[in-house]
Automatic annotation (TrEMBL):
PROSITE patterns: HYPA. The keyword Kinase does not apply. Belongs to the HypA/HybF family. This is Hydrogenase maturation factor HypA. InterPro entries: Hydgase_Ni_incorp_HypA/HybF_CS (IPR020538), HypA/HybF (IPR000688). The keyword Membrane does not apply. It comes from Streptomyces viridochromogenes (strain DSM 40736 / JCM 4977 / BCRC 1201 / Tue 494). Keywords: Metal-binding, Nickel, Zinc. Involved in the maturation of [NiFe] hydrogenases. Required for nickel insertion into the metal center of the hydrogenase.
């Protein structure tokens, strides 16, 4: 399950970013996961819960934004969904495309600091 190593890397990086911003505690980490990134969002969520214990993100939740795979068709000048398994033929003009515009993302999109205690 490579999601555990990904979750660990997300926690480490989110902690670094939070500390650099002067944040002591994090309540949520938002990640963007592309349809073709090879990551199972539910498995990543489970792995995040396991890996966060004992870290500065122990109380944080993981928010996963799924990014659909989209390709660009030059002759039609349009984006089209690639789907899963991926199919890189334009549904409009029936031409192949090699221009993948989205779907491989695996990135931290945001970190939400925990509210300061009153």
């Amino acid at each position: 399950m490579h999601e555990l190593s990904i979750a660990t890397a997300i926690i480490e990086r989110a902690d670094e970013l939070a500390r650099a911003d002067g944040t002591e505690a994090v309540s949520a980490v938002t990640v963007r996961v592309g349809e073709l990134a090879g990551v199972v969002p539910d498995a990543l969520g489970f792995a995040f819960e396991v890996a966060r214990d004992g870290t500065a993100l122990a109380g944080a939740r993981l928010v996963v934004e799924q990014v659909p795979a989209q390709a660009w068709c030059g002759p039609c000048a349009e984006e089209f969904p690639v789907g899963m398994p991926p199919f890189f033929w334009c549904p409009r003009c029936d031409q192949p495309s090699s221009d993948l515009r989205s779907g491989r993302e695996l990135e931290i999109a945001g970190i939400e600091p925990s509210p300061a205690p009153a």
